[in-house]
């Protein structure tokens, strides 16, 4: 897999045992066939050690130019958005999107070859930035989920899509934790000992994401 020179900073609070560096590869399948892979690294924040930094390199061969996307995302210790950067290769070249939280607003800045544009979108607490081809970003959703159900606003910077969802943390009493997603995004995230998803199921699209064995 060819890696992009990427950056997407997402900091989010995770269980204590997940505050060490972790890495892995997600295998993404749809209707039984593999459509992509995503390599991720999760570690304490570079600037705020009580937060977290997530970096992702995704590759979807059937997408334009191999569907290569790089993300680096930072969140504060309480799980809120600090800074985000996404680099995507497309038919017209590379697009870079930056996002930063600003209270009730999220500022988005998009750079393409020869142009740059910025805009503000409604933000608020529990904003998560997602992308259809970067499922590793659901690590941040898992970090914000609560037993009572945490309401979140998802923003898709590349497409402009917005979605409301509820993330409810469940335990089976045997050490296995899952998170149920409902609302405009539905699915199930199954967490491993590290506090991040080892499996993600999205029945509506027939997509399953599993953590590859080392």
As a whole number of angstroms, the C-alpha radius of gyration is 16 Å
Distance between the termini: 16 Å
Structural class: mainly beta
DSSP summary, beta strand count: 16
* Count of DSSP-assigned helices: 1
Q: What are the secondary-structure elements, in order, as H or E?
A: EEEEEEEEEEHEEEEEE
The fraction of residues in strands falls at over 45%
Helix content: under 10%
- Mean pLDDT comes to 85
Main pleated-sheet profile: 16 strands, mixed
Gross morphology is globular
pLDDT < 50 stretches:
1-18
What is the count of structural domains? 1
List key phrases describing it:
disordered N terminus; 16-stranded mixed sheet; 214 residues; mainly beta; 16 strands; globular; 1 helix; single chain
